[in-house]
Amino acid sequence: MKDQHSPTPIGSLRQAPEGFIEPGLVNAIHKEGVDENRRGMLRKSFTAAVAAMAAPAALAADGESEILDLQPWSGMLGNGVATNPYGQPSKYESNIVRRRSPGLAATSQADVAFTPLQSMFGSITPSGLHFERHHQGWVDIDPRKHRFMINGLVNSPKVFTMDDLMRMPSVSRMHFIECGANTAMEWGNSAVPTVQYTHGMLSGSEFTGVPLSLLLDMAGYDKKNGKYIMAEGADGSGQNRTIDMDRALDDVLVVYGQNGEMLRPEQGYPLRILVPGVQGVSSIKYLRRVEVGDMRWSAKDESSGYADLMPDGMMRQYTSIQEAKSVITSPSGGQKLLAKGYYNISGLAWSGRGKVSKVDVSVDGGRTWKEARIEGAIHSKALTRFNFDWVWDGKPALLQSRVTDETGYVQPQYPALREVRGTRGIYHNNAIQTWRVLESGEVENVQVG
Ligand SMILES: Nc1nc2c(c(=O)[nH]1)N[C@H]1C(S)=C(S)[C@@H](COP(=O)(O)O)O[C@H]1N2
Ligand SMILES: [Mo]
User: Fold this and answer.
1) pTM across the whole model
2) Domain 325-446, what fold?
3) Is 72 exposed, middle or buried (0-12, 13-18, 19+ CB in 10 A)?
């Protein structure tokens, strides 16, 4: 069993962390995550798929005149090359945006904006839609003035400029970042309507940077007493986290690139640390310092915050791994199926412990399961897309996905997770998500079991 399921409370009894979630306000989150534009497109493509697979004669476009009418864009001059020197999505896609959750925080500096997972394809999140979680707002740092230091238990403390870092050997890796509080509002019951709000503190990118192990070697870290590192950000949040040395030497990166370009300011430009598979808070943005030490720092974001309140009232500290988790992103809460027939059920799976080995899908609330197709290459600690063919018979259905990772760990149903974790925690909810399809075709967030 993984540490998520064998509680090891550390330290004394403490109060729950200051409410990241204000329960009274959760209901204030409305259906704005549903995108009418995309829904219309889904409708068309779903209807077309139904027709193509069941009754080829009845395509949605049948009887419409669009294909016959000469449209204005067929008879006009197009826009000039580099009219948009930095390309933007079509104006018809303007509903596909990060959304702040009105229920979560009092200030827009200490808040989160969620990724619209219901509208994403494949396993890369466009950089402009990467979720944002800031404790004290985002800053846009002048890279010429940014410095990164390694100090503490090292032979020769080092200070690097961005130029110093960018001439070093680099690697590019696919990884997810998931906030430890992702899906937090679902501990008690199904609280929010769309997958953007249930799972949208999750994004996947190709990151480029320098292995931290190389930089630690350059500084000559103390191999005997250097058991931990502490990563510190340059923004006003005073964000810092302890990371075990074993992990730091394994796959942790000091990152400046994301999806082929420099990090976006919201993601920590010009430098962040990336701790693959570990809850987002450890991936410190605006990285200015790594200190080597022989004890954990017990920083504010690992003592009062980001600790798990267990059913016995104890706090579980330093739990960091994001255990295997998956979610169906389409059809999902707030979307609507229009006709019986074929639908592609599509979703994401990931594990903080390595690769996804398989994903099963159930359309009857977990009574029976069938294996989904995994699309593309499977990367370790990265988002993995799955697809599943489903013919809807027009009756109510309960859609679920369940991932198994390469360690053999299987994503739990809510009853099993709650047995160990209770219902008062905030972090590390990796339970199986259920979407109920009603006879009307509407899809809603429910919990079963
Ligand atoms: N410097 C700094 N680093 C930070 C934070 C922050 O507020 N300041 N937030 C953390 C949290 S809680 C998460 S979940 C991730 C979110 O990364 P993102 O905003 O790029 O999605 O960054 C982490 N690193
Ligand atoms: Mo987070």
Assistant:
1) 0.88
2) Immunoglobulin-like (2.60.40)
3) exposed
Ligand 1 pocket: which of 100, 114, 130, 133 to mutate (most atoms <8 Å of CB)? 133
259: left (phi over 0), alpha (psi -120 to 50) or beta: left
Task: Enumerate the β-bridge partners of residue 241.
Answer: 231
64: CA distance to ligand 2 center in Å? 48
Residue 322 · residue 356 · CB < 8 Å: no
DSSP string of 157-183?
Answer: -EEEEHHHHHTS--EEEEEEEE-TTTT
Ligand 1 contacts CB of residue 233 (under 6 A)? yes
The amino acid present at 153, given as its one-letter code, is: L
- One pLDDT digit (tens) per residue for the chain, 449 residues: 333 333 222 222 222 233 333 333 333 333 444 444 444 444 444 454 545 465 443 466 778 888 899 999 999 999 999 999 999 999 999 999 999 976 666 688 888 999 999 999 999 999 999 999 999 999 999 999 999 999 999 999 999 999 999 999 999 999 999 999 999 999 988 889 999 999 999 999 999 999 999 999 999 999 999 999 999 999 998 889 999 999 999 999 999 999 999 999 999 999 999 999 999 999 999 999 999 999 999 988 887 778 888 888 888 888 789 999 999 999 999 999 989 999 999 999 999 999 999 999 999 999 999 999 999 899 999 999 999 999 999 999 999 999 999 999 999 999 999 999 998 888 999 999 999 999 999 999 999 97
Whether the CB of 186 sits within 6 Å of ligand 1: no
Q: What is the DSSP string of 94-163?
A: TT---EE-TTT-SSSSSEEEE--GGG--SS---GGGS-EEESS------TTT-EEEEEESBSS-EEEEHH
Exposed, middle or buried: residue 369 (CB in 10 Å: 0-12, 13-18, 19+)? middle
Closest atom of ligand 1 to CA, residue 235: 1
Q: How far is the CA of 428 from the centre of ligand 1 (A)?
A: 16
Domain locations along the chain: 99-316, 325-446
- CATH number of 99-316, picked from 3.40.50.2300, 3.90.420.10, 1.10.3720.10, 3.30.390.30: 3.90.420.10
Distant-in-sequence contacts of 10-15, Cβ < 8 A, 24+ apart: 10/315, 10/316, 10/317, 10/318, 11/303, 11/315, 11/317, 13/313, 13/314, 13/315, 14/304, 14/307, 14/315
- Tell how far the Cα of 249 is from the centroid of ligand 1, in angstroms: 21
